[in-house]
Amino acid sequence: MLKFESDQRREITAAARDESERRIFALLRQHYGPTHVWPGDAQALEVVRAATFKAAGYEMNAERDVFKIAALMLSFSDDFDAREPWAREIVAAREGNAPIADLLYQAGIAEVRRHEDAARRS
After folding, report:
1. Could you tell me the pTM of the whole model?
2. Are 34 and 28 in contact (CB under 8 A)?
3. 1 in a structural domain
4. What would the pLDDT profile of 47-66 be if each residue is shown by its tens digit?
5. SS (H, E, C) 81-98
6. Please, which of 6, 36, 49, 101 could form a disulfide with 65 given CB 3.0 to 4.6 Å?
């Protein structure tokens, strides 16, 4: 049986996380850059890294969940889940470790559309 030392496991895990973050970054760049939301590649990559940790804190490790969290962080703020009332409600209603990225993303899109509609009426 093949055994890895703890340093080797950390390196493999870090390499896998880095590759995953680069895929998420590329997808975000495709959908968001360049817009007023996209702060630049270096900053956006940091957002992806922060989103990876935020999603892990919610026990959501799928790339699609990290993508959605990163998109929300780019659109609202890095602490959108604590600042935005609609996000706080979703987090508070979470049962166990149920994934909530889809709910947060859908609510975030609705919030953006609400603001866009209000701006058009003004």
Report:
1. 0.80
2. no
3. no
4. 999 999 999 999 998 999 99
5. HHHCHHHHHHHHHCCCCC
6. 101
Q: 């959501």: which residue's tokens?
A: 60
**44 vs 49: CA distance, rounded Å:** 9
110 phi, psi to nearest 5 deg: -60, -40
- Other Cβ atoms less than 10 A from the Cβ of 71: the count is 24
In the chain, the number of structural domains is 1
- Residue stretches of the chain with pLDDT short of 50: none
* CA–CA separation, 6 and 57 (whole Å): 22
19: in domain: yes
67, two tokens: 């993508």
Domain with 37, as residue range(s), is 6-121
What DSSP assignment string belongs to the chain?
-----HHHHHHHHHHHHHHHHHHHHHHHHHHHSSSSS---HHHHHHHHHHHHHHHHHTT---HHHHHHHHHHHHHT-TTHHHH-HHHHHHHHH--TT---HHHHHHHHHHHHHHHHHHHHH-
